[in-house]
Specification:
It is built from 13 helices and 4 strands. The chain is 72% helix and 4% strand. 33% of the residues are buried. By secondary structure, it is mainly α. The chain is globular and about 85 Å long.
Length: 332
């Protein structure tokens, strides 16, 4: 187990390093001259040269990458006008558009994204897996047809459609839920009751999208598992149906669910752009979208690396969980 975990950690670190190379290359080479983004309208050659020198983009690419990785790993000095800003800790770059370190912006937005992702994940995992198992056990019944029809609708309808419908009905017409204050979640003053109510609709809307996929995947996996020879052997031994389903059927059928859940949760922690934009939540996804619109390359790069980190960690955790969920999996 230790060797396997060590191997996965090494692979994860190498993968994250490759991501840094790709991200740096994309946002350094493809956009062209980054000095034009900060120089304003019709800049002179002297102004552009000064901005390039301050940003360090006049240096060779290997030296620029080394400076970039130094800021990601241990922090560095960033030129901001007449002064220098020093980051003692890893700061993932400096947002010249907002005049703050990128890591500070990410850590302020992360609690909102994490709260939205955790609540929605709990709902879609419980709801989607439960509906999928029941549909598989009651294949062809009225419940199965209705559940799969609703699941098809959930997969087909985008978040911004169901989100806007939910806002129109439950917030503005029925007024069962409060309108989301963009400065309220985790802000000052902090109202836990209102904050919880503000997240209910994003949780439900996001969970509905994912629960539909999980229900269909769980149903397919359970139908395949319940037709295996060892399931018939367990029934022939006289084991109760509940034991056959839970201990032998679900345990093997949940392997693809764990894979999907780890990747989905890791991606959501990197930012759910459509959901956050629809509900006005100032999370990582909304922040990344605003950075793209404002050509804030350091913030985009930092958010991308942060999202990649979550996905890589999720993959490692999923691989380790395989040994505990499915006894057929052997770690090497």
């Amino acid at each position: 187990m230790f060797r396997f975990l060590l191997k996965r950690l090494i692979v994860g670190i190498v993968t994250l390093w490759v991501v840094t190379v790709v991200v740096f290359g994309i946002f350094t080479i493809i956009p062209g001259d980054p000095a034009l983004v900060y120089a304003g309208k019709d800049p002179s050659a002297e102004v552009l040269a000064g901005i390039r020198a301050k940003l360090g983009v006049d240096k060779p690419l290997p030296e620029q990458y080394a400076t970039f990785m130094k800021g990601v790993a241990v922090g560095r000095d960033f030129p901001t006008g007449p002064k220098m800003v020093h980051c003692d800790a890893p700061c993932l770059g400096y947002s010249y558009k907002k005049d703050v370190p990128v890591l500070g912006l990410i850590t302020r937005a992360l609690p909102i994204t994490a709260t939205m992702a955790a609540g929605a994940a709990l709902l879609w995992l419980l709801g989607g897996v439960s509906v999928g198992v029941l549909s598989a056990l009651r294949r062809g019944t009225f419940f199965d047809r209705i559940a799969m029809t609703i699941s098809l609708a959930g997969v087909s309808l985008p978040v911004y459609f169901t989100g806007l419908i939910g806002l129109s009905v439950f917030v503005y017409q029925l007024q069962w839920l409060p309108a989301i204050d963009t400065n309220s979640p985790f802000g000052n003053p902090f109202d836990p009751v209102q904050t919880f109510q503000s997240f209910i609709l994003p949780w439900v809307v996001l969970a509905f999208l994912y629960a539909a996929s999980y229900a269909r995947l769980t149903r397919t996996s359970m139908l395949e598992t319940m037709s295996e020879d060892y399931i018939r052997t367990a029934r022939a031994k006289g084991l109760p149906e509940r034991t056959v389903v839970t201990r032998h059927g679900m345990r093997a059928a949940l392997t693809p669910i764990v894979t999907m859940f780890g990747l989905d949760l890791g991606a959501l922690l990197g930012g759910a752009i459509l959901t956050e934009y629809t509900f006005g939540l100032q999370g990582l996804g909304k922040q990344a979208l605003d950075a793209i619109n404002k050509f804030d390359y350091p913030l985009i790069m930092g958010t991308t690396l942060f999202a990649a980190f979550f996905i890589i960690v999720a993959n490692i955790v999923v691989d380790v969980l395989y040994a505990f969920i499915d006894p057929r999996v052997r770690l090497s």
